[in-house]
Amino acid sequence: MASERLEQFSSRWSLLISMVGIAVGTGNIWRFPRIAAKYEGGTFLIPWLIFLFLWSIPIILMEYAMGKGTRKGTVGSFAKLMGADHAWMGAFVGFVSTAIMFYYSVVSGWCLRYLVAALTGDLQGLDASGSLALWNQFINGYQPILFHFFSMAIGTFILFRGVVRGIEKANQVFIPSLVVLLLILLVRAVTLPGAWGGVQLFFTVRWELLLDHRVWLDALTQNAWSTGAGWGLILTYAVYMNKREDTVLNSSVTAFANHSLSLVSGIMIFATVYALIPLQARAVISEPGPLNTGLAFIWIPQLFSRLPGGYFFSIVFFLALFFASMSSLISMIELAVRVFNDAGVDRHLAIVGVGVVGFIMGIPSALSSSFFLNQDWVWGVGLIVSGAFFTLAVLRFGVSRFREIYINAEGTDIRVGRWYDLMVKVCIPVEVVALIGWWFWVVIRADPEGWWNPLKVESVGTCLFQWGLVLLIFVWLNRWMAHRTLEEP
Amino acid sequence: MSPGSLVVMLLVLTIVWGGLILMLVIALRREREKSRDEIKSS
């Protein structure tokens, strides 16, 4: 059905910059420091680094190889790899990322609104109550919808221009600018008087905390949510790779670049907060705040207004945050567009359709914090199911066969050995079970009476109900989806 | 900064930032080799 010729990234560097754009998002800048602060920084870094090798790189490698090898989006890739009767699994993977896109665009809108506030000087001279009042005034009005609309409009406009002139060019602006902006903030942060106390805190390991299973599970969760592994986004961009392009080295660069920028953000946040409010530093960084945005939208405006040159650094921070969010948002829109395009829908029509539906479906999250938190919970944990589906696909195809045919294919710079089989057969399945089991256990323990209730914001019931509904629809549509996607012109 | 924190900092930064730089250097060399091969074959 997909009769039009596929565009290709113009070079390896363009591909890599776009892949890094997927991985690096708001989670690197505000989630990573918050979770690290829960475990005194350094303690968290050790398992976080270990799971880079045990989760992120192996799954990113799967995505690169599947996208490059099958030349299809999530639905077509799963159908080609596992057989036409498994297209529903690819559809579920695609839907999870698309459902995240609905509310992620709202988050991009928040970043854009605060960038505007930084530019107009509204963030200057804010104290704690002023900062909270600004947030409440924004979130309870019509503005979240307006800025969500702007984000979706910018995202769809970029995609409308195509892969090379749209995705590639946009990321060539977003990612190098993001790196420069974060480095400016890093230099400013570590040169503040007393900042090294924060850097020390960030790298202090309390070895006894490593015996706590929670630090390991939080580190695995951060890897699952922040690197883009298992989302289907990397698979989607890999469709536009040159056939002679490498997979292994590019996968590793993508994962390492994500972790590198997380470290820059972590050092920057710890140093800034510690320099300005040393006694409350850890509590402030680890405080989730409203909609888990406490650090970015409540504390950063206050802290930066106390800095010499705070006006300039507020703009730099929110511009970095906006670029990070947009580079991820366009990949989420592209994932859905690719799936429809594979099914024979004209690319431009698919972009407009996904843009309009994405805007409409994001409105409830823009209006209701309960709805936002529910969607974040359901599809955030759903990503682990997506990771499990990728693993199942490779297991069914045969790990060694997959390694030889798809990973160690033409153009690879580094050959992957048998260690990969062990990762896919043992490590990742154990991690999936541990993660889903843990997150459900946390919720059941927090709410022993209502954990089964599908109408609760964060419950096991709401996950199972929404996943079940989506799975049921995709299993029912399986034959039609596979037929539309796999049929050659 | 305590010696322990300093060691952890150097270790983490070497693995993550050093790893990234090393891989980028390998990628750069591979790209050069590929373009050299393409010039030869043409």
Explain briefly what this protein structure is.
Chain A is mainly α and 489 residues long. Chain A has one domain (12-484): Amino acid/polyamine transporter I, CATH 1.20.1740.10.
Q: Can you offer a commentary on this structure?
A:
Chain A has helices spanning about 10-25, 25-40, 40-70, 75-80, 85-120, 130-140, 145-160, 165-190, 195-200, 215-225, 235-240, 250-275, 280-285, 295-305, 310-340, 345-365, 370-395, 400-405, 420-445, 460-475, 480-485. Chain A has about 500 residues and is mostly helical. Chain A has a single domain (about 10-485), classed as Amino acid/polyamine transporter I. With about 40 residues, chain B is mostly helical. Chain B has one domain. Chain B contains 1 helix and no strands. Chain B is rod-shaped. Chain B starts with a helix and ends with a helix. Chains A and B meet through helix 3, helix 9 and helix 12 of A and helix 1 of B.
> What is the typical, i.e. mean, pLDDT of chain A?
92
Written as H for each helix and E for each strand, in order along the chain, the element string of chain A is HHHHHHHHHHHHHHHHHHHHH
List the domain count of chain B as a whole number. Answer: 1
Question: What's the tally of helices of chain B?
Answer: 1
Shape call of chain A:
globular
Name the CATH superfamily classification of chain A. Amino acid/polyamine transporter I
Mean pLDDT of chain B: 92
What is the SS-derived class of chain B?
mainly alpha
Helicity level of chain A:
over 70%
| CATH topology group of chain A | Amino acid/polyamine transporter I
Q: Spans of chain A with pLDDT under 50 lasting ≥5 residues?
A: none
Number of helices of chain A: 21
